[in-house]
Amino acid sequence: MLKEKLLELRQQALSTIDSADELKALQEAHVRFLGKKGPITEILKGMGKLSKEERPVVGQLANEVRQLITARIEEKRADLEARQLEMKLESEKIDVTLPGRKTAPGSHHLLASIIREVEDLFIGLGFSIEEGPEVEQDYYNFEALNLPKDHPARDMQDSFYITDDILMRTHTSPVQARTLEKHKGVGPVKVICPGKVYRRDNDDATHSHQFMQIEGLYVDHKVRLSDLKGILTVFAKHMFGADREIRLRPSFFPFTEPSVEMDISCFRCGGHGCNVCKGTGWIEILGAGMVHPNVLRMSGFDPGEYTGFAFGMGPERIAMLKYGIEDIRHFYTDDIRFLKQFYRA
Ligand SMILES: [Zn+2]
């Protein structure tokens, strides 16, 4: 009787295990057939009631059945686990033939493009590029440029002071002073100095507490105002169109004498008068002049032997004029919609 029951259990167990299609069903089969309350355990527990002859036969068979079921469960478990892993790998497979995600190509900021354009032009005219510190000594920012401590022109450039003698440079002119000093009184010096400058201004459509400047300096024997005019004419035609004319108006800067403002004929209306030139036909572009003898002297150059010119312009102003930009803050708020318009400008 028990022998037949064991054989029947074996048959049931094996077919249950074979049809299990997930680990949970396999676990259930294990509990059902081999658990503490399962039929095989029950049979083994009841062995004491059997006769001496039956006991070893049934005992051996029960053990064999138990071992067979255990082995078949382990086999099936390994099989199911392998299948599960395979499915997982399949579902997580990366299709390397799919097209990649597009990344937007970057481009130069409009101001960087303008600065590069100006740099390229002046490099072609024999100038080299000089840079200097943005955190500057009062001496180079003011004194070496003929702006002593009590000079009223210092009021025009309210500055960010870090200590009494250190400030954020208010213009790129200290680079000129440093460059002259480096040359120890021997010319020629022919440089342009682009970079960031800082003023204590409240930001609005035409003012920014930080903006760009490009200055130029040419010191040599017999440099004349007509040389300045020639260079500036080349610059105006290069940046604003071949038929631009320029005019120089008298002005004042502490570090140049004489000083001039340069206007260009309006590139919009050609000089007839429009809203860009405010009806005058002329647009103010930059300030310039002949280097003040005091500046040359302070930097170790003999004003009897050397003369020079200097000029300074704002890349923002050039960009605003060229592209009809109405608010200087657009350059510094990093709105991608604004920047994108000048992709490869
Ligand atoms: Zn005009």
From TrEMBL:
Subunit structure comment from the entry: Tetramer of two alpha and two beta subunits.
Gene3D superfamilies with a match to the protein in the record: Bira Bifunctional Protein, Domain 2
Q: Where in the cell is it found?
A: Cytoplasm
Task: Write the Enzyme Commission number(s) for this entry.
Answer: 6.1.1.20
Q: For Mg(2+), which residues are the binding ones?
A: E257
The record's free-text note on cofactor binding: Binds 2 magnesium ions per tetramer.
Q: Which UniProt keywords are given for this protein, alphabetically ordered?
A: Aminoacyl-tRNA synthetase, ATP-binding, Cytoplasm, Ligase, Magnesium, Metal-binding, Nucleotide-binding, Protein biosynthesis
Catalysed transformations (reactions): tRNA(Phe) + L-phenylalanine + ATP = L-phenylalanyl-tRNA(Phe) + AMP + diphosphate + H(+)
- Source organism of the structure: Sporolactobacillus inulinus CASD
The protein in question is named Phenylalanine--tRNA ligase alpha subunit
Does the keyword section mention Aminoacyl-tRNA synthetase? yes
Cofactors required: Mg(2+)
Name the InterPro entries on file: aa-tRNA-synth_II, aa-tRNA-synth_II/BPL/LPL, Phe-tRNA-synth_IIc_asu, Phe-tRNA_ligase_II_N, Phe_tRNA_ligase_alpha1_bac, Phenylalanyl-tRNA_Synthase, tRNA-bd_arm
The record places domain Aminoacyl-transfer RNA synthetases class-II family profile at 114-341
Q: Name one GO cellular component term.
A: cytoplasm
Lineage, highest ranks first: Bacteria, Bacillati, Bacillota, Bacilli, Bacillales
Q: Which SUPFAM superfamilies match?
A: Class II aaRS and biotin synthetases (SSF55681), tRNA-binding arm (SSF46589)
Per the record, the similarity remark reads: Belongs to the class-II aminoacyl-tRNA synthetase family. Phe-tRNA synthetase alpha subunit type 1 subfamily.
The record's listing under Pfam families reads: Phe_tRNA-synt_N, tRNA-synt_2d
MF-aspect GO terms: ATP binding; catalytic activity, acting on a protein; magnesium ion binding; phenylalanine-tRNA ligase activity; transferase activity; tRNA binding
Give GO BP annotations, semicolon-separated.
Answer: phenylalanyl-tRNA aminoacylation
